[in-house]
Design a protein that fits this description.
Length: about 160
């Protein structure tokens, strides 16, 4: 017997959380002119794009949107963004924080570029840490069992839905 999906956040709920997190980003970067939003491909990059669009609509600051592959750290990324990230404000974005393995590995990767500050943002934090990493900006903190799964799904209108599977 297959377990039914439980809707945790509607598209409207997610939009509100993204708006709030975008404003928190502005507050934490009030004296900085240029902020890099680094989204982990695939879903983290989609969340980053939504945050980017919100920020562009509410602030004159310069925001740069970057997609980062989860599995590979390429020389292409380093050549393209390495000099720009040095001394900059960087926000690493993913959809769900579970064990922290992906997030901490990408934090370590981005630290090679010596940013002036590095923050993390996740839409949902499950609190199942195996690695010492935390999210600075969180849409929803949700305690789940290890057997449960959180799915972030894009709807037909381009919004996000969050399900507990």
């Amino acid at each position: 017997m297959e377990k039914e999906r439980q809707l945790i956040l509607t598209a409207i709920d997610v939009e509100r959380k993204l708006e709030r997190m975008a404003r928190e980003i502005l507050e934490s970067n009030y004296s900085i002119d240029k902020v890099f939003l680094v989204g982990l491909k695939e879903r983290g990059a989609k969340v980053a794009k939504k945050i980017f669009e919100i920020l562009k609509g509410i602030s004159p600051k310069e925001f740069v949107l970057i997609e980062l592959e989860k599995e590979e750290e390429t020389d292409v990324f380093e050549k393209r963004y390495g000099d720009e990230l040095t001394g900059s404000s960087v926000i690493l974005i993913d959809d769900v924080l579970n064990s922290g393995k992906t997030l901490i590995s990408k934090v370590c990767f981005l630290m090679r570029f010596k940013p002036s500050q590095l923050s993390t943002l996740v839409l949902v934090d499950r609190k199942h840490r195996k690695f010492p990493v935390r999210a600075d900006f969180v849409g929803l903190t949700l305690s789940t069992t290890l057997k449960e799964h959180i799915s972030v799904v894009e709807d037909k209108k381009g919004g996000f839905l969050v399900f507990l599977d």
